What does this fold into?
Amino acid sequence: MQDVYVVGAAQSDFGAFPEESYRSLFATALEHALDSVDGQLDRTDIDEAFLGTLGVGGRQLGLSAPSVTEYAGLDGTSATHIENACAAGGSALRQAVQSIRAGMADVALAGGVEIMTDMSGDRTRYWLGVSGETEWERMAGTTFAGVYAQMADAHMGEYGTTREQLSTVAVKNHRNGAKNPHAHLRFECSLEDAVNGTVVADPLNLYDCCPTSDGAGAAILASREVAKELTDDPVRITGSGHASSRVGLFQRPSLTSIPASQGAAKEAYDDAGISAEDVDFAEVHDCFSIAELLAYEDLGFCAPGEAGTYIESGATEPDGERPVNLSGGLKSKGHPIGATGIGQAVEVFKQLRGEAGDRQADGLERGLTHNVGGSGGAVAVHVYEGGWA
Amino acid sequence: MGAYLSVPAWWRNLDGRYRLVVGECQECGGYTFPAEGACVECNAIDALTPTEPEGTGTVVAQTIIESGAPPEFTTLLDAEGAIGVVLVELDEGVRVPGMLTDCDPHDIGRGDRVTAVVRRIYEQEGITRYGTKFRPD
It folds into this structure.
């Protein structure tokens, strides 16, 4: 089995861009990703492309992968769309890893794109709910904010997690994202702001929710042989994990954890030959504040029920024992569904190479990305290390 | 169009909509709602026997939707100002999602007892769709 290296990775700005299309955003991300490769790599060297997108916003387009790759100069290259709701990007990355490990490709592209801000409110309300359990959960009146609110309610009730602990996620991630030039919401917020936000789905308020964004990401993966020719500063993907679970929360055994996160983490840790304590930093799927707290527990960063006190201790701040969401996370950087999982890989790539600018953290050797689809129907976890195998 | 639920898709599950019919697994004895697909407890296939529960249970998680309800419920949210949505663990030991009714949702929380009642859920394409909501005991 071939070792897999990330030789280039970049994202477009995340935000609201009425002047851009899903194709132009992807082309921008790919250009920047090619530019980020240390050596000379031509786009025609890409053997295989996987594109994560829910369906290009609410358009539900067929052939979305070749539509963007042809625009970006990859006409003729194998291109396949991967759909796993908000985990589409992480799932595309998984496919790219597998294609190189299997020896089918020497260079593979994992991309992601979404356009979410250009539709009327009426149409947006219809398509945003497509990734949940649509027949029962949705018909009980919940969209994603409601389902995560129920998880927050259960976590607060079972473990005593507090309003302030939830809001600390927003305060931390906005502080980090304010330093990220590609972030959608580049403002800081106080704990008081975050506690007193307008209620969306009680107990979650506006500050507990990530925005919907336009954006794209691209990660270029290569075999060891190719990577050796391209860089002296390699980032290796040492672990890949992927799991699924019941799409509807009401059918799962626990309301306070995401089984697919636990399953994907275990596979990724086993694959990398590490355990949770070996992870120096992580980009986790904080679509809602409670989701970041659940991730701490499901990934094994702290014990079940202790995520509130864990974040309160400062452990996941940039100068803490295990920084989480140095990019600003979904909360501040933004959440263009299919691009999110690739955006996470971009941040880990930059941090491990010391290229994260004002938000660079010190002493990082091993990073993790955690990308959740829906409220936990599918999860992708990857582990990255600097240096050659 | 997004998460549109067609009339046949609603109609084929009327036992679950009106009476919360659950599936009792002939392999492990666990319950699955709705009564179709693999058993949520043991993944057994073709093992669910439809069973009608009492319709009584306990709230295990709650939210109060104040904005961003699914579009089918926009009119209801405008009229009510807030919609209480709960997960109820029925006394048979299976969880179902549903809306609260006949109460101020702010008065209801985890641990409260509720009973299933048939109510109008929403109207689409001129057809009123009925289903189950939960009323506090």
In short: Residues 55-136 of chain B form a domain with the OB fold (Dihydrolipoamide Acetyltransferase, E2P) fold (CATH 2.40.50.840). The CA atoms of residues 8 and 14 of chain B lie 10 Å apart. The radius of gyration of chain B is 16 Å.
